[in-house]
Amino acid sequence: MPAHLTGADQWGTIIATVDPLRVSPTMSAITLFASLLRCQDRDWFGRHLLHRFATLTFFLGTAICAESWHSAAHSAENVTRPNVVFILADDLGYGDLGCFGQKLIETPHIDRLAVQGTRFTQAYAGATVCAPSRCSLMTGRHNGHAAIRGNQEVQPEGQYPMPADTFTVAHLMQKAGYVTGLIGKWGLGHPGSSSTPDKMGFDYFFGYNCQRKAHEYFPEYLWRNSEQVPLGGKQYSHDLLAEDALQFVRRNKDKPFFLYLALTIPHAKLQVPDLGPYAAKDWPENLKTLAAMITRMDRDVGRLMALVAELSLDDETLVFFASDNGAAYRDDLFDHSGPLRGYKRDMYEGGIRTPAIVRWPGKVKAGAVSEQVWSFPDFLPTLADLTSQPIPAGLDGISILPTLVQGETIEHPPLYYEFHERGFQQAARLGHWKGVKLAPDRLLELYDLTTDIGEKHNVATEHPEIASKIESYLKTARTDSQQWTIQKAMAKGTKKGKAKAKGAGNE
């Protein structure tokens, strides 16, 4: 410190070196006392010692209070803005998990999620097949308003893309300051299109761009962002995805992150490196493989949750688990749909209801079972609510955050579904009433889900006023789409019907 300065000038210089709102109290003390020892005008400091000591005490007290305030604010931020992980299985049936009634396939880690969180028995996927379901999850719109309403491939790789101006849940989380990652299957565009993961809000992507390519578990390559990662058909893709998810969490442990983990199990092909606990079972080989795939996925869900705990992120991480649609398999051994009627590609509950679990220690009730109705379009508005952002206009979903953190029961708007692969089919749920219309010229089927979860008894003739109400809703619930018109769907359904009549086999 310059010797030519007076004691008062030197004190002013010392004070100017420290900002109690920017540095810790410890650093403030070190800076102040080190500067004091270097001061040249000791007589001036001796004469004013008591006053300077009081000033220093006040100064450090202010710094301590400031640091405490910042620490409290940071803690509150962590509570209100948790990490978010959405784990999506592929073609997993409502009855394929132990916590949802499965007796033969072992899923201890996902079952533990249900013990530690809330199991939702009336949660719904976005559609009865892959691409439109994922589109609803990403955009908050149901099948009648979403840009993607069916599976449509683009050769040589990919699917029909969402428009360039689509706003996704990943964009929402980026706006909230989150690092966003997609690991697994995309299926909502093709390489070079307007709808690749990086253009749809994801900072990081590793996996399959194309859902058709995702049928192969030993692929020639996967994508990392916009670059191909050669694999030569020698590595099991699920294991790579699971490991990459762990690395993503490790890299981003000190900042809020949103991880969309879109796993490909148990979608066909049925491929797995080993049969695990099912090797000695006297089951058909394909069913042993299927069970081993599901248990392998369960193992890796457990590894992910163990890492979250290891990094002390348990209380700061909101985890969702669900499947993109109903079970694709119809064997007699596993009872994939449980008590529900139907499978993937059906408008009945077995095609669209999903085994959903939500876990957030200290916020979402542990060990609970909820009958709250919710669906994939609710995901975006729920995260908007969670991150204190306005819910975008024009969405079909609602925030279910009050249900998650306060246990409130919310009256949900009608659920709407349409399907374009078997002609034009529609379904809707209004309250506890479910309507199914298998063709525009067929009568509506009506089911009371409070007493008939298996949709065995069509009560349309007994409740004509309810049937009429749902019929009217089906006419107004959708907007026309040039890509997915009713006329195209009807023509496609006719063509498929003729192919089956000639012995072309199942879809």
Key terms:
single chain, 507 residues, alpha/beta, eleven-stranded mixed sheet, four-stranded antiparallel sheet, disordered C terminus
Describe this structure in words.
The chain has 507 residues and is α/β, with parallel strands linked by helices. The protein has helices at residues 7-16, 25-38, 42-47, 49-80, 108-116, 130-139, 169-175, 237-251, 285-310, 349-352, 379-386, 401-406, 464-476, 486-501; strands at residues 83-89, 118-124, 179-185, 204-208, 221-224, 227-230, 257-262, 317-323, 353-359, 368-370, 374-375, 415-419, 425-430, 433-437, 445-448. Helix 2 runs antiparallel to helix 4. The longest helix has 32 residues, at 49-80.
At a glance:
The protein has 507 residues and is α/β, with parallel strands linked by helices.
Q: Provide a count of the helices.
A: 14
**Assembly level:** single chain
Helical residue percent?
A: 25-40%
Low-confidence stretches: 1-42, 44-79, 499-507
